[in-house]
Every structure is written in structure tokens, then in C-alpha cells.
Specification:
Strand 3 (72-78) and strand 4 (83-92) form a beta hairpin. It contains 6 helices and 12 strands. With 272 residues, it is α+β, with helices and mostly antiparallel strands. Strands 1, 2, 3, 4, 5, 6, 7, 10, 11 and 12 form a 10-stranded mixed β-sheet that branches. The chain has a two-stranded antiparallel sheet with strand order 8-9. The longest helix has 22 residues, at 28-49.
Length: 272
């Protein structure tokens, strides 16, 4: 398939990270249009994949996820100006408490054996982020149009996590990845790994919300697999020149409902 697509980056209104990117544009309508387009893509992909039910969609077919308003979004836009891929990044300061993470709402946290181990493993990374003054990023909300699976677009939508991490000055992060479509194994090849405690890896778990097996993975934006470093550098240069589209800070903070806590399922990988 011809690689006729471009990147688009949406930034949250409360962002502190702008030095590594091009010009910032504040445009309420444009931001909404792109956000709606990626939520529509999610709705189509997740519904077809069986991860959600029709009643969970908005009347216009969108599938918003808690935390969308506070997140960065990386989009792939085709030559017809359609959103064909997306991923989202909820960037936390290094001081974020565990209870404020989306992981806190994960089904694995309710497991009598693994819940406490997940907490301790994640808190170990949070302590490291504080020592090294790194952001902590939760990655999810991935979706990719079916016809683009198995192409370079599928790889770039995943590798972008590392490119953005570099532009943010380095970060530690986590994501939940589906076992179906080999999503988790692809992320492992790029540089992701299981959380572990005392040499014991956190195993895959069943997510009743999305009806699939998930893996909780961690990553360090500074330590990708070496084979992907050239691609990460290419994406870093491309994304760094994009510029960012923001909403109005005033309009964001004037609506407290947009700050409602996230619910389970803030991260879903169902696109490959």
C-alpha cells in the first residue's frame, strides 16, 4: 500500500511540554474535529473487534474514553483527510501518586494475588521517575483502520511512543496491550517488557470490560530495541516539526465535568 498519510498531534490544554515541538495553534473547532475523528475511528475498530457493544457508542458512532480531554493524541491522516490511526498519551509529572494512574482502575488490581504486586512494581518505576526527573506516561487508545494493518503505518503508530518520549525529555511509561492480533508481542519487540516484582513477571489477565486477554507492559523511552532506533529518530524529526493543536485553556477548565476520574479501560490496543 502506498504510504499516503501524514501525522497530526493534539496537545492537552494543561500541557507543559512545548519546547520540542513546532508552533502551537489554539483552535477549539479544529481540535474538536480531530478528536471526534479519532473517537469515530475507535468506535468502528473496537466494535468490529468485539471489544465494545453498539450501545456504548455515541449516536454519531464515536467512542470517547475517560481522559481523552487531558491527553496528547497522535493521529495518522490519509490523503483524503480521514483519520486512519490514533494513539493517546496521558502524561503525568514524576510526582503522580499511584492512585491517580489509569492502572489503578485495571481489573488486575482486583486480583487477590497480583493486585498488590502490580502496585509495588509500578511504584518502583514511579520512584525511578522521581529520582531521574522523568515524566510518567500512560499510553493507550490505539486504533488503526483495518486496511492499514500490516503496513508501515501500523509500526509507526506504536513506535511514536518512543519518539514523543524523546521530545518530552525522556519518560517511563506503561500500557495495556491485547494478546489478540499479537499486539503485545509487537510492543515487546519494540522495547516493552512485563512489569515484575522479585523476578516474578505480572502475567496476562482477562479484562471483562473488553472481553479479551490483556498484558500490562512497561517501557523506557530511552531504551528501545536497537533495530528501531533509526525509525524513532525519523519520527522524532517529523513529529518535532509538526506543531501542536490545542484547545482553549479557559474553556477546558471552565467545564469541571471534563476532569472526571478515568474509569477502567483507559488503555486499549485492538488495532493490529
Amino acid at each position: 500500500m502506498r504510504q499516503n498519510y501524514r501525522f497530526q498531534l493534539l496537545a492537552p490544554p494543561q500541557t507543559r511540554f512545548s519546547a520540542g515541538f513546532g508552533r502551537a495553534t489554539i483552535d477549539e473547532q479544529l481540535h474538536y474535529q480531530y478528536l471526534a475523528s479519532l473517537q469515530s475511528l475507535r468506535g468502528r475498530v473496537y466494535l468490529k473487534d468485539g471489544a465494545i457493544q453498539p450501545w456504548e457508542l455515541k449516536e454519531d458512532g464515536r467512542f470517547p474514553m475517560a481522559g481523552d480531554e487531558q491527553s496528547w493524541h497522535f493521529l495518522l491522516i490519509d490523503e483524503y483527510e480521514r483519520t486512519i490511526g490514533c494513539a493517546r498519551y496521558l502524561v503525568h509529572p514524576s510526582t503522580v501518586p499511584f492512585e491517580m494512574l489509569r492502572i489503578y482502575h485495571s481489573p488486575v488490581m482486583r486480583d487477590e494475588h497480583w493486585g498488590d504486586k502490580v502496585r509495588k512494581a509500578v511504584e518502583t518505576d514511579l520512584q525511578r521517575a522521581r529520582r531521574e526527573d522523568l515524566a510518567y506516561v500512560e499510553v493507550g487508545g490505539w486504533a488503526l483502520s483495518e486496511e492499514w494493518r500490516g503496513t508501515r503505518a501500523a509500526l509507526e503508530i506504536l513506535v511514536a511512543s518512543y519518539a514523543l518520549g524523546h521530545l518530552w525529555g525522556g519518560c517511563l511509561g506503561s500500557c495495556t496491550a491485547t494478546v489478540r492480533h499479537h499486539s503485545a508481542s509487537i510492543l515487546r519487540r519494540i522495547g516493552g517488557s512485563s512489569f515484575s516484582l522479585g523476578g516474578e513477571a505480572i502475567p496476562p489477565y482477562q479484562d471483562p470490560r473488553y472481553g479479551c486477554t490483556m498484558e500490562l507492559l512497561r517501557f523506557d523511552s530511552r531504551s528501545p530495541a536497537k533495530r528501531f532506533v533509526p525509525l524513532i529518530n525519523q519520527l522524532k524529526a517529523s513529529v518535532g516539526n509538526l506543531g501542536t493543536i490545542h484547545r482553549s485553556r479557559r474553556q477546558f477548565w471552565d467545564n469541571p465535568e471534563r476532569l472526571a476520574p478515568a474509569v477502567n479501560g483507559a488503555s486499549l490496543l485492538a488495532e493490529i
